[in-house]
Design a protein that fits this description.
Blueprint: H1 6-23, H2 29-35, H3 40-68, H4 72-91, H5 95-122, H6 129-157, H7 162-168, H8 170-179, H9 205-208, H10 211-224, H11 231-239, H12 244-272, H13 274-292, H14 298-326, H15 332-361, H16 363-383
């Protein structure tokens, strides 16, 4: 724990409170959207669009953070925007307002992510990045346990009162913004680059990026093309006849596993290597999605969501640590942001494609296709050689 600095603790608590806010709503989102008339296809469009906004803005604001040599203002405003977006979805039920609320929430994530991850990277060495990112992820995911747990208790006493949860969720979200006031900006030199700073220019980093970065990102993007929203997993559980409380319970279980294993997975990744950890996680992901095609009861679902938590713990922080080890520190927010921007396009395709395959061919086809592509990407990473000796 000596590797965990004060700034990492602050950022981790901010993420914890934010995830309490966001994840309070996430497992009920498909239930709520279906209750107000959203189809599976429209849910896929909504999630794909929202994630595209998040990713594209990550590239732009990540680059802006590097250009200005500042991190904290981006972190603070991003968390504030996400907090104030929550009540909108509970108050308005028309599709336009639902899309607006989700866009605001994901835009907030896009504004803060590159700068936040750059702050985390600055607090670590190449030898400790797996641990630092793993610890942050574990705290983040602890919020994803507490949030749905509160939602489950609330809905027990107030069944199907989804709208009230959107207002309650604003409280921990605003608390995260207040905690961000404790962050201190480290002095950094501004990058003198003669070019416009806009959403499209953020992708210009790709042109001069290291070849190892490009190879890594290509593999991650192919995986991203089939890594659709987790809402489809929850819809599958619901489609098999489980009640709302059981759906939320399984999601809580998944996040608990995710939180408990994130730090150990990060520590292990520092010892055995970041790439082997990523490959292991992708194989687990493929097994989970293949299993979801045939799962029929609670035992199956709990077993698969346990493994899904292992996958998430093994890959989320690891992929970011891999990226920051490949590129110079001065480019960290741009590199993460550019990847996120490209990945957002993949996420948009993935969620729309997932919804369409589900609608026309059934959920089994969607899950099996995802598993097959994931296995292919796993073998790509096995054969991939990255020049940085630390990874």
């Amino acid at each position: 724990m000596k590797k965990i600095t004060k700034a990492v603790w602050i950022l981790s608590f901010i993420s914890l409170f934010t995830d309490v806010s966001s994840e309070m709503l996430y497992p009920i989102m498909p239930l709520y959207l279906k209750s107000i008339g959203f189809s599976v296809v429209l849910i896929g469009v909504l999630e794909g669009f929202a994630e595209a906004i998040a990713g594209l803005s990550k590239g732009y604001f990540g680059k802006l953070s590097d250009l200005n040599g500042k991190r904290v203002p981006f972190v603070q405003f991003g968390y504030l925007l996400s907090a104030i977006s929550k009540p909108i979805m509970g108050f308005f039920t028309f599709p336009f307002w639902i899309f607006l609320s989700r866009t605001m929430d994901r835009l907030g994530k896009g504004i803060r992510t590159g700068a936040r991850d750059a702050l985390l990277s600055d607090e670590a060495t190449p030898e400790t990045k797996g641990t630092v990112f793993g610890f942050h992820r574990s705290m983040d995911t602890l919020g994803a346990v507490l949030g749905p747990t509160f939602a489950l208790i609330f809905l027990h006493f107030y069944p199907e009162n989804y709208s009230a949860l959107f207002f309650i969720a604003a409280i921990p979200g605003l608390s995260a913004f207040l905690i961000s006031g404790l962050l201190k900006e480290k002095k950094k030199e501004k990058l003198v680059i003669q070019e416009d700073s806009n959403f499209l220019s953020s992708f210009l980093y790709w042109k001069n990026a290291p070849i190892s970065y490009k190879k890594l990102v290509i593999g991650l993007l192919v995986f991203g093309l089939v890594n659709s929203s987790d809402l489809f997993l929850l819809l599958m559980v619901k489609a098999k006849g489980l009640e709302d409380s059981q759906v939320i319970g399984i999601y809580i279980f998944y996040n608990l596993v995710y939180a408990l294993f994130s730090l150990p997975a990060g520590i292990l990744a520092d010892k055995v290597g970041l790439k082997p950890s990523l490959v292991f996680g992708l194989f687990v992901f493929a097994f989970v999605y293949g299993g979801m095609a045939f799962a029929e009861n609670k035992i199956h679902f709990y077993s698969l969501f346990f493994l899904y938590g292992i996958y998430a713990a093994s890959t989320e922080g690891t992929s970011k640590a891999l990226i920051t080890n490949i590129i110079p520190k001065t480019d960290s927010a741009s590199a993460i942001g550019t990847f996120a921007g490209l990945n957002s396009i993949a996420a948009l395709i993935a969620s729309n494609l997932g919804g369409l395959i589900w609608f026309y061919s059934g959920p089994k086809s969607m899950f099996l296709m995802t598993a097959l592509v994931s296995i292919t990407v796993s073998f790509y990473f096995i054969r991939l050689t990255l020049k940085n000796s630390e990874i």
